[in-house]
UniProtKB/TrEMBL annotation, chain A:
TM region positions: 25-45, 57-79, 85-107, 188-213
Segments forming domain ABC transmembrane type-1: 23-210
UniProt name for this protein: Amino acid ABC transporter membrane protein, PAAT family (TC 3.A.1.3.-)
UniProt record, GO biological process: amino acid transport
Entry membrane topology: Multi-pass membrane protein
Keyword rRNA processing: no
Compartments reported by the entry: Cell membrane
Domain of life assignment: Bacteria
Chief location of this protein within or outside the cell: membrane
Keywords, in A-Z order: Amino-acid transport, Cell membrane, Membrane, Transmembrane, Transmembrane helix, Transport
Organism expressing this protein natively: Halobacillus dabanensis
UniProtKB/TrEMBL annotation, chain B:
GO-annotated molecular function: ABC-type amino acid transporter activity; ATP binding; ATP hydrolysis activity
All residue ranges annotated as the ABC transporter domain in the record: 6-240
Name of this chain's protein: Amino acid ABC transporter ATP-binding protein, PAAT family (TC 3.A.1.3.-)
Keywords: ATP-binding, Nucleotide-binding, Transport
InterPro entries reported in the protein's UniProt record: AAA+_ATPase, ABC_ATPase_HisP-typ, ABC_transporter-like_ATP-bd, ABC_transporter-like_CS, MetN_ABC_transporter-like, P-loop_NTPase
CDD domains with a match to the protein in the record: ABC_HisP_GlnQ
Entry keyword annotation includes Membrane: no
Organism: Halobacillus dabanensis
Pfam families: ABC_tran
Domain of life: Bacteria
Length: 221, 244
């Protein structure tokens, strides 16, 4: 046990170079997929509250499919589908797969937060002569974003951790590097724990970033 | 058509099967202060909200400053700029400062320059006695202060008509006076106002006309003195004795 413990710390420190690179890959994957997911989420949230039936149905089907199928299946469908049709890289197919997946959850987060803003706010905007779109953009969305932030932060963390599935597509992110190290040294446990530490660090940083934004947006309380 | 600020002919409004406004005929002259009274559910709010198209009438005619408004054809955003509204629950924008609330619509809708909007916004805040609160957020204000900001915000669009839907009903009793005073000042300046309120003192003192509504109909209209001292209709008498 003692030896293993020493081994763990040694490995963690010695391997910091390759894992730092892998962490950058994880971050890139997470950042790109989350950014696209926010865009998708907003779009489908608007579709759901649009009161235009076909758009509502489309959004519901999308969310139903994402919720009802495993993420790993979605990622492989994107991988085989996209790399063959568009010849895009494994990295981008996973990024889009993750975006597709997180987009559904983020759509629900946005829908909920937009609908949680009282109708008095819309009425106040409209009564001042603001158009529907202007009221949405200037009055409702800023408040809704603020309310969405805690659950969004949660979803970002899930997205970050889920990006480990990219290992199965051959993207050299943290988990992939850990399993490679494990099979090279036959010491899987050490390297899995090393990867866990890296994920914890990234999640910690992400949490800090989200709460910094939350604080900044809370000035009006 | 005479030059009324507001003219309503045979207006009907339904919520589903519920007939809420029944053949309403109603008008407001320039600089007139009309107070709407009536029991809960009689349709006062709905009436007011039809006047700035927060609710859409089902039938009837609605003229603002002599022009018939057709919600399908006319730009309601432009109509609403002339008709300010103050709500029972203030509905201030919590993510904006007091001044931010006041200048939002002039900036975004009228495209007034920021400097100009701020200058006028501050003047309005001075006028409602809140010049020192410009940079505070609404969460830090008392109810009475919030409502005065809401009045300043509506005035910032330079409306010609102001609608008030129970502006003091959500306030602690000691805060009612400051809001009523602001409204009195506004009336004195000649603002055309339609006010739904249970403040009979205000109605007596400020109203040119009191309109009593019951069950979606206007039952009686008259000078405050006549309505309060000699109501002709039995229903008006019953209502007044129930609240006074
Ligand atoms: N959005 C709505 N949907 C369905 N029914 C409504 C709606 N708004 C109002 N009503 C109904 O219309 C009737 C008139 O309501 P309104 O709010 O105009 O009354 P009011 O005179 O303002 O009452 P109060 O003094 O309680 O504010 C009531 O029966 C009310 O339940
Ligand atoms: Mg009402």
């Amino acid at each position: 046990m003692y030896l293993n413990f020493v081994n763990f710390w040694g490995s963690l420190i010695e391997s910091r170079g390759i894992f730092f690179e892998a962490a950058q890959m994880t971050l890139a994957l997470t950042a790109i997929s989350i950014l696209i997911a926010i865009f998708i989420g907003l779009m489908f949230a608007f579709m759901k509250i649009s009161k235009i039936k076909p758009l509502e149905w489309l959004a519901n089907i999308y969310i139903y499919v994402v919720r009802g199928t495993p993420l790993i299946v979605q990622i492989f469908v994107f991988y085989y589908g996209l790399t063959e049709i568009w010849m895009i890289s494994g990295f981008w197919s996973v990024a889009l797969g993750l975006a597709f997946h997180n987009g559904a959850y983020i759509a629900e987060i946005f829908r909920g937060s937009i609908q949680s803003i009282g109708k008095g706010q819309t009425e106040a905007g409209r009564s001042l002569g603001m158009s529907n779109i202007l009221t949405m953009r200037r009055i409702i969305l800023p408040q809704a974003f603020r309310r969405a932030l805690p659950p969004l932060g949660n979803q970002f963390i899930i997205g970050l951790k889920d990006s480990s599935l990219a290992a199965f597509i051959g993207v050299s992110e943290i988990f992939a590097v850990a399993t490679t190290q494990g099979s090279n040294t036959f010491d899987y446990m050490t390297w899995l724990l090393v990867s866990a530490v890296w994920y914890l660090i990234l999640v910690f940083l992400l949490t800090l970033a989200v709460s910094a934004i939350e604080k900044k947006m809370a000035v009006s309380d | 058509m005479s030059e009324q600020m507001i003219q309503v002919n045979k207006l009907n409004k339904y919520f589903g099967d519920l007939h809420v406004l029944k053949d309403i005929d109603f008008h407001v002259e320039e600089s007139e202060v009309v107070v709407l009274i009536g029991a809960s559910g009689s349709g006062k709010s709905t009436m007011l909200r039809c006047l700035n198209f927060l609710e859409m009438k089902n039938s009837g005619e609605l003229y603002i400053k002599g022009e018939q408004i057709d919600p399908k054809k006319d730009n309601l955003n432009q109509v609403r700029q002339q008709v300010g509204m103050v709500f029972q629950h203030f509905n201030l924008f919590p993510h904006k400062t007091v001044l931010g609330n006041v200048i939002e619509a002039p900036l975004q809708v009228k495209k007034v320059s920021k400097a100009q909007a701020k200058k006028e916004g501050k003047e309005l805040l001075e006028k409602v006695g809140l010049g020192d609160k410009a940079d505070d957020y609404p969460a830090r204000l008392s109810g009475g202060q919030k409502q005065r900001v809401a009045i300043a915000r509506a005035l910032a669009m330079k409306p010609e008509i102001m609608l008030f839907d129970e502006p003091t009903s959500a306030l602690d009793p000691e805060l009612v006076g400051e809001v009523l005073q602001t409204m009195k000042d506004l009336a004195k300046e000649g603002m055309t106002m339609v006010v739904v309120t249970h403040e009979m003192g205000f109605a007596r003192e400020v109203a040119d006309r009191v309109v009593y509504m019951h069950d979606g109909k206007i039952v009686e209209t008259g000078a405050p003195k006549d309505i309060f001292e000699n109501p002709k209709e039995e229903r008006t008498q019953a209502f007044l004795s129930s609240i006074l």
